[in-house]
Amino acid sequence: MAEIYSVYLSPTAERQELQHIRFLEQVSKKAAVELRNRFVEAFSSLEEMPKRYPFLDEEGFPKNKYRNLFVANWFLVLYEVIEDRVVIDYILDCRQDYRWLLRG
Questions:
Q1: Mean pLDDT over all residues of the chain?
Q2: Using CA atoms, how far apart are residues 19 and 22, in angstroms rounded to an integer?
Q3: Are 54 and 12 in contact (CB under 8 A)?
């Protein structure tokens, strides 16, 4: 039987997810619900085989720390696999500037 991982959102990731959903809700409540469902589905999928997604290989990011998953085409989810846990650290909208992450 496959190992099951526990999935956690960091406080930062929780806040980012909520911001993305609330922003979209101003345009379309239906689209916001769909986005929320896609996040839930993607995060749940990390319970099994979270290492199937590649490490983020970008200059300025720690090597082999964050794995990356795209949700709804433009949301970049950065997460770590730590023993039997998956910790989602950031949920970034790739249409926006996220260079602040490199400075922090």
A1: 90
A2: 5
A3: no
What are the residue boundaries of the structural domains of the chain, listed by start? 6-103
Q: 90: which 2 tokens?
A: 């950031």
Region of 63 please: left (phi>0), alpha (psi -120 to 50) or beta.
beta
Residues constituting the chain: 104
User: pLDDT digits over 71-87, tens only?
Assistant: 988 899 999 999 999 99
Are 16 and 91 within 8 A, CB to CB? yes
The CATH class that applies to domain 6-103 reads alpha beta
Report d(CA 100, CA 98) in Å as an integer. 5
Q: Which residues contact 55 (CB under 8 A, 6 or more apart)?
A: 63, 64, 65, 66, 67, 68
Query: Mind listing the pLDDT tens digit for each residue in 8-34?
Result: 999 999 999 999 999 999 999 999 999
